[in-house]
Design brief:
mainly beta; two-stranded antiparallel ribbon; flat
């Protein structure tokens, strides 16, 4: 099954010895794609917490969908953590648009190895 996709390819300036490009998808199966901002604070564990912020990965507009997300936390207590996962399905807003819930555990890190819990809701679609 072929799905028409449009987008922009940009040369990557990474220091990797392999030639690479980044693909920014602008439409999927004829529907424009969108992203959501997200941010929050992790749980308080091992004497500290972390802040995080980012944008979800793109997803098609106008259909039921989820978004992948990824962010590196703030540098606290000598280390960072990674948060990543997939949001829940869209939740419509009364005046249009929608948002998604997300939750999970960070990667393990720190001089005392540990994780943090996080949860929240994205902002409205952009």
């Amino acid at each position: 099954m072929d799905i028409p996709i449009t987008g922009i390819i940009v040369h990557s300036e990474d220091d990797d010895s392999n030639h690479s490009h980044k693909l920014y998808i602008t439409s999927w199966d004829g529907r424009p794609v969108h992203v959501h901002p997200f941010s929050g604070v992790t749980s308080y564990d091992v004497g500290h917490q972390h802040h995080y912020a980012g944008m979800t990965k793109p997803a098609p507009s106008g259909v039921q969908h989820v978004h992948n997300y990824y962010a590196v936390t703030s540098f606290n207590d000598g280390h960072t953590h990674i948060i990543s996962g997939t949001t829940g399905p869209l939740i419509p807003l009364p005046n249009g648009g929608h948002y998604h819930h997300f939750e999970g555990h960070t990667t393990v890190n720190g001089s005392i190895p540990h994780t943090h819990m996080y949860q929240g809701s994205t902002g409205n679609e952009e």
